[in-house]
């Protein structure tokens, strides 16, 4: 906050956070949707595909809105890369077994 004006200054890393949420948030949501599809293997295919499709948007928007709580854009990228690695690793392991 600027002492002279009493206004908050815009942080310079908002673009990095926005791109992290937009790109890595989407891939994280798609990976989570894939895990949901594997977890619902006993459900009929039309219902399962609808659940998987509709689960992407709330996860993506949750990640996209939560990315601004990170202290910096670099931390947002690192945490979301780690989360993507975890989700897609779990997806690969689940498909293997």
Structural account:
The chain crosses the membrane at residues 20-44, 51-70, 76-94. Keywords: Membrane, Transmembrane, Transmembrane helix. The chain has 97 residues and is mainly alpha-helical. It has one domain. It has three helices and no strands. Helix 1 (14-39) packs antiparallel against helix 2 (45-66). The longest helix is centred in the N-terminal third of the chain and has 26 residues, at 14-39. The model has no long low-confidence stretch (mean pLDDT 93).
Write the layout of secondary structure elements.
Layout: H1 14-39, H2 45-66, H3 73-96
Helix pairs in contact: 1-2, 1-3
Tell me, what's the shape?
elongated
Radius of gyration: 17 Å
Give the N-terminus to C-terminus distance in angstroms.
53 Å
Mean pLDDT: 93
Secondary structural class: mainly alpha
Q: Strand tally, please?
A: 0
Instruction: State the major sheet.
Output: none
**Unreliable runs:** none
Helix content: over 70%
Number of structural units classed as domains: 1
Strand content: under 5%
Number of helices, where a helix is a run of at least 4 consecutive DSSP H or I residues: 3
Q: What order do the SSEs take from the amino end to the carboxyl end, as H and E? A: HHH
Transmembrane segments: 20-44, 51-70, 76-94
Keywords: Membrane, Transmembrane, Transmembrane helix
